[in-house]
Amino acid sequence: MEMMRVNGVEVEDTFAEAFRMWGCRVIITAKNQKWADTAAMEMTGFATSVIMCDCEAGIERRLSEDETPDGRPGTAVIVFAHSKKTLIEPLVRRIGQCVLTCPTTAVYNGIPEEEADAMLDIGKRLRFFGDGYQVKMRLGDGWLRRRRFWRIPVMEGEFLIEEMLGAKKGVGGGNFIIMGVDEDSTLEAAERAVEAIHRVPGVITPFPGGLCRSGSKVGSRYPFLRASTNTPFCPAIKHTYPESQVPEGVNSIIEVVINGLDEASVRRAMAEGIRAAVEVEGVRRISAVNFGGKLGKYQIYLRDCLGGEAS
Amino acid sequence: MMELRLKPKVSGLSIPLEAEVISPDVVAGKTLREVEELRVYHGNRVETLSEYFEVEGEVAPNPEEQLIIVEGDVSWVKYIGAEMTAGKVIVKGDAGMHLGSRMTGGEIIVEGSVGDWAGAEMAGGLIRIRGDAGDLLGAAYRGSPEGMRGGCIFVEGSAGYETGTGMRRGLIVIGGDAAPFTGAHMNGGVIFILGRAAKRLGAQMKGNGSLIICLGEVEELLPTFVYDTTYTPTFMRIYLKTLSEKLGIKRAEEYIGRAFRRYRGDRAVGGDGEILVVERG
Fold first, then answer.
1. How far is residue B181's CA from residue B172's CA, in Å, rounded to a whole number?
2. How many percent of chain A have pLDDT more than 90?
C-alpha cells in the first residue's frame, strides 16, 4: 500500500468508509455547567455504536451563557441514528429519562429549521408526561420566527422543552486508526486527536472518551455473533493471525470514530485529529477502517482530508 | 426602503377622518398623483387624501419596500395601517383609533399616543407606541370571538381598559400601567405589564397558554385566580431576553432569575390561564 508521510509518520493511502445517518443536535441548559454536563453525559451514555445501541451520541461542546436561548450555561449533544424514524425513539427516551429527570435542565433545538432536513416532534411527544397540566408556550407568532415550547410541571419546578428539534442527514463512521510502538504513546496520541477534533463544530466522537480500542469487523466464527474484534489489527495476535495487518514495531492501535452533521465537518475533524496524533513520538502509522467500499456511502480518503499534505 | 411623506394640511378635525389608505399595501405601485387621489372618508363625505395631506417622496413598487412617514399629530385620523401586510409606517405624533387593526405584517411606529382599538384583531407585524394607548388595545371587535391573533404590540406608556380582550395569540407589552380588565376573555397569547396592573386582570381568561406577566405592582387579583407556587421558571428567561433583544426593553433583563408567584384561572369559567407576578424584594 502506498504511503504518505505527515510529520514523519506513515499515513496509508486508504479511506474511511462512512455511512449516511440522521443527526439531531440537542441543546441542554441548566442552572450551572455541572448540571448541564450531568444531563448531557447521562443522555449520551450507552450510545457508542448502532451495532448494539439504539443510537450513537456524544457531547459536541459546552455552550457559554451567550450562546444558549435562556442565557444559562449549556451543553450541546448530537444524536445519530440510521434514519429519521429510528432517531425519534432514542431522543424521546433519552431526553425523557436523562434530561427531564435532571434538576434545573431545559432542552432547545440545536438545528434551526432553515438548516434542518426535518423537524422532529420530540417535545410534542414528551409533553404528555405533564398529565394534562403541561402548558404550551408560544413565541414569535406573526412577528419573529415562530417557536413553540412545552412547560411540564415536575417536582423540582418546571421542565422546559422546545416542541420541535431539527434533524439533518449527516455522516456516521468517519474514522482513522493510530498505530504506535506502545500503549502509552498510542493513547496519548489518540487523546490529543480527540481534543483537536472537538474544536471542529458539528461532530462528535461517540466512543468512550472518543476512542475505540476494540475496532470491530463484520461477523465472527460464531454464528450467534454478528460483529467481533478486529483481528487484522490486534497486535497481540499479529504473528499468529494469518491476515494480520499490524506493521512491525507496532504494539498498540486505537481507532477514533467521528460522526458529523455533514461530510465536510467529518473530513475536517479527521484531518485535525490526524495532525494532532502525529505530533506524538512513538506513533508509527495512521490508517483507516473500511469495508472495501461495499457498505458505506462515503469513502473519505486520508490524503484528501490532509489535502495531500506531506512532510 | 422608499420614503413617502404625508404632511397634514389641517389639525384637530372634530369629525375624524377614516384613512385606511395610509398603508404600504395601498400606496405601493401607484404614482404620486394616484396616491393623492386615494379616497378617504370624512363623516358621510368621500374625499381625497390630498385634501388633508401634502404628499411627497417616492412610491415603492411593492409594500415590502414602502415606508410612509406621517408628519405631525394625526390623532384625528383613524385606521392608519389597518390591514397592512408589509412595509413600515412611522407617525411622528399622535394617531387616531383603529391604528394597525387587523394588520398581518410590517411595522408601525407611533412617536406619540394612539386612540382606542389600536392593533385590534391584528394577526402579525409589530406596533411600537412611544406614548400611551387608548382602550381595547389588541382587542376583539364587538361580536368577534377572537382578538389579537399574532404579532406584537409594545406600548412604552400606559394602556387603557380591556387591553387584549379575547386575545388568542401574540404578545402585548405595556411599559407603563394597565387599566382594568386587561386580558379579559383571553384564550392564548401573552401580556407583559411592566407598570401597575389594575383590577379585574384576566377576568374570564380561559386557557390555551394564556399568560399575563406582571413585573410591577398588582392592584388586586380576582379571587377566582388560585395561587399555586412561588418559583423561578426557566421559560421566563426566554421571554425576558426577547423583550430585551428584540424590543430593546433593557430593564426586562433585571427580572431574569427573579421568583414569580403563579396564579391559575379564571376558575369562574373553568379557565387554566396563568398570571405570574414578580416576587417583591
1. 14
2. 92
